[in-house]
Amino acid sequence: MNARSIRVGILYNVCEPRLVRPKETLSERALETAARQAGAALLSFGYRLQWIPVRNCIEEIVAPIRRLRPAVIVNLCEGFRGHSAYEAQVAGLLELLDIPFTGNSSHALFQCHDKFRTNAILKACGLPTLPSWLVEDERQLPAAARFPLIVKPNCEDASIGIYPHSVVRTRMALRKQVARVLAAYDQPALVESFVDGREINAAIVEESAPRVLPLSEILFQHYPAGLPRIVGYDAKWQAAHPTYRGTVPVCPAPVLPALARRLTRFALQAYRVLKLRGYARVDFRLDARARPYILEVNPNPDTSREAGLARSLAAEGIAYENFWRSQVRLALKKK
Q: Rounded to whole angstroms, how far apart are CA atoms 190 and 188?
């Protein structure tokens, strides 16, 4: 099918500051950038574009789809009405409308949105995960947990809710951080063992079959002394912040072949176990003995040209434009 005969819808979030936490809007604004860049990539092949901005009215999604009936949708939506929990529901709406779309299914998005549930599934399948506890009441802290620990919202992405004080080393600090998460994010807190080691990301793309791109590592170079080495919200989004300047991505990551094979195998296993499709990212931490643990599985990673996925694509020799063309083709094929 000729690209010029195919209408592609670009579904993306428009940042509504009143619907999100004022200090955590940068990750929302990045979606508009990713949408523009994906659209430009597809325009270079001659695809006809239909922009579908997602605000706070469901009819703004449904009406243009019904009116123009795109052949496929690039789904860059990560929530609705300021709630990331609705990310899966928007994908479900596309499924009910019988429109093929890029990225993961509503089932996969729903499953991965719950970090504790994802860890339980991965652990049950024999994959390495860190000890974790789901806490819904600050008075019921895990008794068996050994410090240091990290506390974060259970159902957020883009490092939302993760800051230096998220790493705790005493019972009092744990109680305080759990209370902070419960109050600020209106969801359970995820308490995990904290491993202060190397952080490596495995991006996965699917064409005829899923494959792991060159591994990427976050180097904590010139990281502020005294702060726990994590890629928190400021380190990921605040360009002027010391932790942002202190986290340097490098791709391909300098890892030994045996370790690279293990990480690749674990990433592909997680991808298949969670029934992912299209593209995803699996984040690892290594302990002092270089043993890897899966930190998170991201079924909807940042696809902008400046982000880790694009960095791994470039290291593999895959042009950004070709990535989006293959994702559109894959979505149409799956249909």
A: 7
